[in-house]
């Protein structure tokens, strides 16, 4: 995630169809053709076990191209969360911080 450079990875998908595909390690791209429309759970795992796998739901609409970017984080890599704010002198998070923390939680 830090460098945003492509790495060797595998995508496993489950939904109306299921399977596993390797990416093009030069471009980082996965191409799946003719998946039946529906909701799929994708789990992306780096070929090197130093990377933390990432899972998410992806909706495939009929006749539409669907693109999704994944950035894997290395284990023990420092993560900086920008936009997580507290009110002055308080320990409570501001509501706009929840979206950022939800995204971080999905990665972790």
What's this model, at a glance?
The protein has one helix spanning 97-107, and strands at residues 9-14, 18-22, 38-46, 54-60. The protein is α+β, with helices and mostly antiparallel strands and 108 residues long.
Radius of gyration: 17 Å
Number of domains: 2
Strand order of the largest sheet: 2-1-3-4
Determine the oligomeric state from the structure. single chain
Helix content: 10-25%
Q: What is the H-and-E element order?
A: EEEEH
CATH third-tier fold name of the largest domain = Immunoglobulin-like
The count of helical stretches stands at: 1
- Proportion of residues in extended strands: 25-35%
Low-confidence stretches: none
> Which architecture name of the largest domain does CATH use?
Sandwich
What's the level 1 CATH class of the largest domain? Mainly Beta
Global morphology: globular
Mean pLDDT across the residues is 86
- Cα-to-Cα separation, first versus last residue: 12 Å
Helix/strand-derived category reads alpha+beta
User: Biggest β-sheet, characterized?
Assistant: 4 strands, antiparallel
State the total count of DSSP E strands. Answer: 4
InterPro entries: Carb-bd-like_fold, OmpA-like
Domain OmpA-like: 73-108
GO molecular function: carbohydrate binding
Protein name: OmpA-like domain-containing protein
Question: Can you characterise this structure?
Answer:
InterPro entries: Carb-bd-like_fold, OmpA-like. It comes from marine sediment metagenome. This is OmpA-like domain-containing protein. Residues 73-108 form the OmpA-like domain. There is one protein chain. The protein is globular. It has a four-stranded antiparallel beta sheet, with no helix packed on it. By secondary structure, it is an alpha+beta fold. It has one helix at 97-107, and strands at residues 9-14, 18-22, 38-46, 54-60. The protein folds into two domains: 1-75, Immunoglobulin-like; 78-108, no CATH class. The longest helix is centred in the last third of the chain and has 11 residues, at 97-107.
């Amino acid at each position: 995630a830090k460098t945003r450079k492509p790495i060797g990875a595998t995508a496993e998908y489950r939904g109306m169809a299921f399977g596993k595909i390797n990416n093009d390690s030069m471009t980082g791209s996965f191409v799946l053709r003719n998946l039946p429309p529906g909701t799929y759970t994708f789990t992306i795992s780096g070929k090197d076990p130093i990377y933390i796998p990432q899972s998410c739901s992806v909706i495939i609409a009929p006749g539409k191209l669907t693109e999704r970017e994944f950035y894997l984080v290395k284990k023990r890599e420092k993560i900086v969360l920008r936009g997580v704010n507290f009110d002055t002198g308080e320990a409570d998070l501001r509501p706009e911080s929840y979206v950022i923390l939800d995204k971080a939680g999905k990665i972790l």
